[in-house]
Write a structure and sequence with these properties.
single chain; alpha/beta; Rossmann fold; binds guanosine-5'-triphosphate; binds magnesium ion; cell cycle; cell division
Length: 198
């Protein structure tokens, strides 16, 4: 699949406003500031398709990007979770929209879960894995910002995450990634192509 063809379609605040639930989509989830939007830009080889920021909480809507000539294959940039400065009521509301989307979006074929390689598997990440497990949704984890670690510690983090996810190994895969250095793109494309063909 040619991911470079990605173009913005629409932003939706919640499930009810999402585009028609047909075709296939892959969503990018993870904590605030983990690097979801940057990963979408790296994978689509576009500089500013998804808006990135040093300020956590940049992405506040569910953003849809279509691939190729129709809107049947989509990438979805989800708002980050766990951002401390957001008021509690807003956090709760967003968490319920996220859970709704993850539980009830039939066209969702797989979840790319971004984690900073230096701080993997937060409580929120585990909650998300449990949500995915509830509906047997496959998850591919990108341990991103791998450029921030030397090769040895990066590999050690990968091995540790793999061990911690042993109970989910049928549904969950994991790799090192860096949007900055464009590391791990081919490994991610292989998973995404498989999901998009489903
Ligand atoms: P929210 O939309 O706020 O949830 O954040 P996000 O997960 O979309 O993160 P975003 O892509 O906006 O990136 C957050 C910050 O991390 C930015 O300053 C990026 O430049 C930086 N960043 C993202 N990916 C990488 C990476 O692979 N390496 C390095 N060194 N920095 C990265
Ligand atoms: Mg973002």
């Amino acid at each position: 699949l040619n991911y470079q063809t990605a173009r913005f379609v629409i932003s939706a605040p919640k499930l009810a406003q999402c585009p028609a639930d047909d075709g296939v989509e892959i969503a990018f989830a993870g904590r605030s500031n983990a690097g979801k939007s940057s990963a979408i830009n790296a994978l689509t080889q576009q500089k500013a398709l998804a808006r990135t920021s040093k300020t956590p909480g940049r992405t506040q809507l569910i953003n849809f990007f279509a691939l190729e000539n129709d809107e049947r294959r989509r990438l979805v940039d989800l708002p980050g979770y766990g951002y401390a400065k957001v008021p509690e009521a807003m956090k709760k509301e967003w968490q319920s929209h996220l859970a709704d989307y993850l539980r009830r979006r039939y066209s969702l074929a797989g979840l790319i879960l971004l984690m900073d390689v230096r701080h993997p598997l937060s409580d929120f990440d585990v909650q998300l894995l449990e949500l995915a497990d509830d509906r047997q949704l496959p998850v591919h984890i990108l341990l991103t910002k791998a450029d921030k670690l030397k090769q040895g510690p990066a590999k050690a983090s990968l091995q540790q995450v793999k061990r911690q996810l042993a109970e989910w190994e049928d549904l969950v895969s994991v790799q090192l990634f860096s949007s900055l250095k464009r590391q791990g793109l081919d490994q991610a494309y292989a998973v995404m192509d498989r999901w998009m063909a489903s």
